[in-house]
Predict the 3D structure of the following.
Amino acid sequence: MTVPLYALIARQSFRRYVAYRGAMLGGIVANTVFGIIKALIVTAIWRQRAVIGGYDLADVLTYTFVAQAMIGPMSVLTNNLDIPSRVRSGDIGTDLFRPVDFQAYWLAQDLGRAAFSVVGRSVPPFVAGALLFRVRVPLDPRVWAAFAVAVALGVLVSFALRYLAAMSAFWLLDEKGVTGFMNMLTMFFGGLTVPLVLFPGWLGDIATALPWASLILVPVNVFLGKLSGAALGGAYLFEAAWAVALLAAGRLVTIRARQRVVMQGG
Amino acid sequence: MGEPPGPVGTYLATVRMWGRSAMQYRASLILLMVNGTLIAGLELVALLVVFGNVRSLGGFTLSEALYLYGAAQAAFYISDLMFTGTEYLGERIRMGTFDALLVRPVGVLPQVFADQFTPRRFCPLIPAGGAVVAGLVGAPIHWTWLRAALVPYTLLTGVAVFGAIWVFVGAFQIMVTDASEAMNVVTYGGQFMSSYPLALYGRNLMLFLTFGVPFAFVNWQPTLYVLGHADPLGLPLPLRFAGPLFAAALWCLALFAWRAALRHHRSTGS
């Protein structure tokens, strides 16, 4: 199968989300307001201690608004894959028959969604944060480029996790329990509920080793210029390793799911 | 068939119907109940993580913050349990199923409140209740009858304030069907904001949260009295007890908005 085909799928998906402008606007407002409340809370914490977990106030304010900007692209709060509803309606049969790879098809769709989200949903909350608070904005274009790579790898990990949760629909009639559980883990271990740097030692060590660290923590550390040279390579390797492992797990699940499908004639 | 039931009867009948429906997928329901408890529990853990780094937040110690947090969360989740059906209105309007509620010979609002009720909404009350109890046990409160009475009074006021907000959510969904996520700012944002000491937010935002959108009365104002704290804004003492007045005013506005929205509603037809 050719790459341009998947690029086309991604572009179509991008366009589909352009149509939902109302939802996008609602998301922007919510992400911005929540960012402001969180920024006020972390300000109160950091006023009492200048540095926590290697972060000063400007670092954590940056973390807060980059995290809010990542909610959309990383789809932190929702699963956002249509697989379960298509399993229930039977449309999944069409998807399985398509002359494209099933997992790659959904990945292409999700990349289109994430790309739109970066353009439409990530920028406003961050700009609002940068105007209202003392946020660090990198001036070096190389940092921005490195950040873009970290975000792209993070989106791969995010997709791989959500794909595993959504595929449970092949085994369960109602997958909401599994996808909800995954969203909960993502919110907490992704460091959206509370910045990961506030986690106490042992919990922090566990959290930074789990795949969810790829979604917000690694991109933020790149954005803050805390990672460069070998450390940056190591961080990319961390994200890529989780992406490969989780996508491979998704591959196995896809094979098993295919064997389970029973088509009703019609 | 006799007389159609009144608002409360309609509400309870709809709740029973949705409750039975949710019971059909038992395994899924149990998983969702565990989820609901864990999600609310992890947010509580987040507060504990914060206090692992600092001794006080907005002038509140851990125990005091736990009580404030638990009271706000409990009020929100009780209101969620009772009224959150309004959140599904946008979807109903898009699907054209809202009209099914309009043509029944019973009140519309009670049916909407109970829409898609599920027993799992009880679950987040477990960590919230735990936080209230832990806070009340741990905080150095000089108990008087008035302070003791203020605890349930705070909860009821909070439920009333959030309840009115859910009515606004319903009205908003009828007027603007596809931008409903914006209302999350007021509902979940209100829940989040009122869970932490308002002193964190600075003078202007505090004033807005008292007299603009009166989230200060969900728990902040009465809690200041229960815990024996002075108001950082120096607002007069009677305001600690004025919650029900603000809640009643909010309900009047909300019901007015709801009526206006219903008049505005045009069915999609077919």
